[in-house]
Amino acid sequence: MLITSSRTNLSGNRLIELLLIVLVSLPTSAVATANRPPSRTSPEDAVRQFYGWYLKANFPLPKRSNLPIFRKYITQKFLKKAMDPEVDSVLFIDAQDDDSTWANNFTVAAATVHGQTATTEVTLTGQKVHYKLNITLRRENGLWKIDGVQGKDWKDTGST
Question: Quick one: CATH architecture of 43-156?
């Protein structure tokens, strides 16, 4: 380090040193993050994360722009079924109709795990419709992914 009698130069040099330290450490942390194995979330977390996105995104269909998100949470088998043009309902809610207020009003029950499969229940409490979903998950590539959805107890509350 160059020692000068100017206090401004010394402060400027320290600032440059700090900036260099930050710049040098950024690529290292980015590489470490990219090389980290996928998160090993619980079945409940996987379901909560998917429906948190899916309901707030207003029930999107799987298509090229959002396929990476679906692939993160849905098994290949179930995704293929959901993309079949012959299917006339939305498989992720097992219904043709929906309630946009579900996005802020859903809960995920504790999962029951049996080896590589798990089941849980999602309760959708909307202003117009209360509905439950039985969710089946399967481990795929070490991650819990949704493999089936079966709706039950559809209750129209009559609210508008």
Answer: Roll (3.10)
